[in-house]
Design a protein that fits this description.
By secondary structure, the chain is α+β, with helices and mostly antiparallel strands. It has three helices and five strands, in the order H-E-E-E-E-E-H-H. It has helices at residues 29-44, 129-142, 163-180, and strands at 49-51, 61-64, 75-93, 103-116, 122-128. A five-stranded antiparallel β-sheet has the order 1-2-3-4-5. It is globular and about 45 Å long. The protein binds zinc ion (ZN).
């Protein structure tokens, strides 16, 4: 089994960083190893998604599960783009970088995810509902955006949450952080 990576917690600077695109010459055995470690760390947490900045690596890479498709194996997604469509959906969401805190977050119902695999092969997936939500949450991490961010207003899908609820999330996190000694 791959070695586990060390999680960072809010407000580690890596979580506010716009991550770098992975270059063609960065694919290879080291990338493959990092991808396997990211998957293993996500599994151990356990979580449905884990982005590289959550382990302090500010590259455009994340791991995700597909909760709506139990048969689909977890994947490592590199240099993704997302095209959102459908209605705005609200569901309770959490984050491995803010453990113990959950809140309703507005997300698009559908997301077309274009990316490269760990083998540097281009791929596209049409995701809906929870799968689409996970992809949007992890994609946000690559742009230094947390699920409680209310400032980055998306043209069609509005704010993830209100400023008031966002502040409440941060207050809850301060309590959790102290309780957990993080
Ligand atoms: Zn997260």
């Amino acid at each position: 089994m791959a070695d586990l990576l060390k999680l960072v917690y809010w407000d580690d600077p890596a979580l506010s960083t716009v991550c770098e695109t992975v270059m063609d010459n960065e694919f290879g055995p080291k990338m493959e190893e990092f991808g396997q470690q990211l998957l293993a760390t996500m599994d151990a947490a356990p979580g449905v998604g884990l982005a590289a900045p959550q382990v302090g690596i500010t590259k455009r890479i994340f791991a995700m599960r597909f909760p709506d498709h139990e048969g689909l194996k977890p994947m490592v997604i590199v240099n993704p783009t997302l095209e959102l469509s459908g209605s705005t959906r609200y569901e309770r969401e959490g984050c491995l970088s803010v453990p113990g805190v959950f809140e309703q977050v507005a997300r698009a119902e559908k997301a077309d995810l274009r990316f490269k695999t760990l083998d540097n092969i281009e791929a596209v997936m049409e995701l809906t509902n929870i799968d689409a939500r996970v992809a949007q949450h992890e994609f946000d991490h690559l742009n230094g955006i947390m699920f409680f961010n209310y400032l980055d207003v998306r043209p069609t899908y509005g704010r993830r949450m209100s400023k008031q609820v966002s502040k409440q999330v941060l207050r809850e996190w301060e309590r959790e952080k102290a309780k957990r000694g993080l």
